[in-house]
Design brief:
about 500 residues; alpha/beta; seven-stranded mixed β-sheet; six-stranded mixed β-sheet; 17 helices; 21 strands; globular; binds nicotinamide-adenine-dinucleotide
Length: about 500
């Protein structure tokens, strides 16, 4: 591990790495060539830190999506027929190249998203890990099963589904993009990526790095722009076989409708209101650290954040007091400062929305507590201090709606059955966290909670072969391991007769 760079070094690095984005508009990458929008339009990209103009970005529309989809279609035949061993080699080269630019990617990501550098310093490394993991899956991506029956040998195989669209959100864009793009490429698909308009820069770094590392032109294309124009056009394009989408549940519904006419395969990773359930018999020191980490890291702008704390009534007051006592020690400030935990939220509009829940909490009757760990950070801007809503109930909007900020809602429960009822009384079902030292209870809770992922006595620790995804309004489908490859491939069954069965005769 490298020692963390100083704040001053990170500021200098940010000036250096961001200069290119200020000097000239950030372009699409279509067929391996940087391209302005056909319309010539651009949109301004503002820093969440101080609203500084970081540069202009090409604003794509249907014409640019069409050009990118054509490039992805034209390169599909060759890329999907490239031997898996060669795809593996190329994707490992991409991982190497991403690692070589890890500092640059971290600084650009931090400046563009407001996420603290202490977390973003691993963004590129986690992205590279995604490429390595799926690179190793590439040689077996088309493998199938042998399913013999009495008179036939059935065997299955998988083929890349075609050019696919990847649409990603703004919260941790680099890592999330690689999570989708790496398995798609490993499976033999070509990709059109539409990154979020509020944090577009590292998508550009990823595509250019991949190209330089030997990914053939046209295999990974990027079109910037808003969801309503570029995103919509991608979901409606007839040459795009599938859409892998990460974002809000409401956007998922819109995409489902938009892509219905072209019958696309869809994979959705959507919102969450994830419960962390703390029983009185848990290791409360570890639970406390995990609760704090899972809501106040990444600015709380994290789909798996433990945004609802369900805590047993017998320890509710003491546990809440201990949580509140930590709030002042959580440093709020410039995300490029290695000491910062909470940086600015992504955009003034999102920040206003998060703040509106703080007002709402008081109206709804919860007690609002906030940390005071400002370190020279401007009090205006997009900054929100770590916030606790104590004494909440599960029917309040602060307990039901995804806030996507450093804001934790605390609710007391009476017993195991009550904990299950509260945990499941939500529209979402992404993740749940259970803290108990009773093994039987841990298994009962894991079974009863309706979520795609349950961590017991742990925060969110991702293991790439395991399935990642949610139930209810949190998503459709799973990422990780073979689940990812299954999404990006079509399965074919071939039945070969042993010539031992009777063929029905219609005549004679
Ligand atoms: P968003 O839904 O507003 O936008 C996500 C992407 O969709 C952006 O690129 C946007 O331009 C695009 N988009 C918007 N409207 C579109 C349309 N009509 N057609 C096609 N594309 C469209 O989400 P966001 O605000 O960027 O991200 C925050 C959300 O993402 C939160 O709800 C969070 O929970 C979710 N998220 C989920 C996961 C997960 O793995 N489940 C991970 C990270 C974030």
């Amino acid at each position: 591990m490298r020692p963390p760079a100083s704040f001053a070094a990170n500021l200098a690095a940010s000036r250096l790495y961001l200069a290119r984005f200020a000097a000239a508009p950030t372009l699409h990458l279509i067929g391996g060539v940087p391209a302005a929008s056909a319309s010539g339009s651009t949109f301004p990209n503002l820093s969440p830190i101080d609203a500084k103009h970081l540069g202009d970005v090409a604003a794509g529309d249907a014409a640019d999506i069409d050009a990118a989809a054509s490039a992805a279609r034209d390169s599909f035949e060759e890329w999907s027929a490239t031997p898996g061993s060669q795809r593996k080699r190329i994707l490992h080269a991409v991982a190497d190249a991403v690692e070589a630019r890890a500092d640059e990617i971290a600084v650009v990501e931090s400046t563009d998203t407001g996420q603290a550098i202490r977390f973003m310093s691993s963004a590129a490394l986690r992205g590279a890990e995604n490429f390595r993991y799926f690179a190793d899956q590439a040689p077996g991506a088309s493998d199938g099963l042998a399913l013999p029956s009495a008179h036939h040998l059935n065997y299955t195989g998988r083929r890349a589904i075609g050019p696919v669209g990847v649409i990603t959100p703004w919260n941790t864009p680099f890592m999330l993009s690689t999570w989708k793009i790496a398995p798609a490429l490993a499976a033999g698909c070509t990709v059109v990526h539409k990154p979020a308009e509020w944090s577009p820069l590292t998508a550009c770094l990823l595509a250019e790095t991949a190209l330089e590392a030997g990914l053939p032109s046209g295999v990974l294309n990027v079109v910037h722009g808003t969801g309503e124009t570029a995103g919509r056009a991608l979901t409606e394009h007839p040459d795009i076989a599938a859409i892998a989408f990460v974002g809000e549940s409401a956007t998922g519904s819109a995409i489902q409708a938009q892509s219905a006419a072209t019958l696309k395969r869809l994979h959705f990773e959507l919102g969450g209101k994830n419960p962390v359930i703390v029983f009185e018999d848990a290791d409360l020191d570890r639970a406390l650290d995990a609760v704090l980490f899972m809501i106040y890291s990444l600015n709380g702008e994290r789909c798996t954040s433990s945004s609802r704390l369900l805590v047993h009534r017998s320890i509710h007051d003491e546990f809440t007091r201990r949580l509140a006592a930590q709030l002042d020690s959580i440093r709020i400030g410039n995300p490029l400062d290695p000491a910062t935990v909470i940086g600015p939220l992504i955009h003034p509009r999102h920040c206003d929305q998060v703040r509106s829940y703080i007002e709402l909490a008081e109206t709804e009757g919860a007690t609002v507590m906030q940390g005071t760990g400002w370190d020279g950070a401007p009090r205006g801007g997009n900054y929100v201090a770590p916030t606790l809503f104590a004494g909440a109930t599960n029917d309040m909007r602060i307990a039901r709606e995804e806030i996507f900020g450093p804001v934790l809602t605390v609710i007391a429960f009476d017993d195991e059955a009550d904990a299950v009822t509260l945990a499941n009384d939500t529209d979402y079902g992404l993740a749940a966290y259970v803290w108990t030292s009773d093994v039987g209870r841990a298994h009962r809770m894991a079974d009863a909670v309706d979520a795609g992922m349950v961590w017991v006595n742990s925060h969110n620790v991702r293991h790439l072969p395991t399935p990642f995804g949610g139930t209810k309004r949190s998503g459709i489908g799973r990422d990780g391991g073979d689940w990812s490859l299954d999404f990006y491939t079509e399965t074919k069954n071939v039945a070969v007769a042993y010539d031992t069965h009777d063929i029905p005769k219609l005549v004679g």
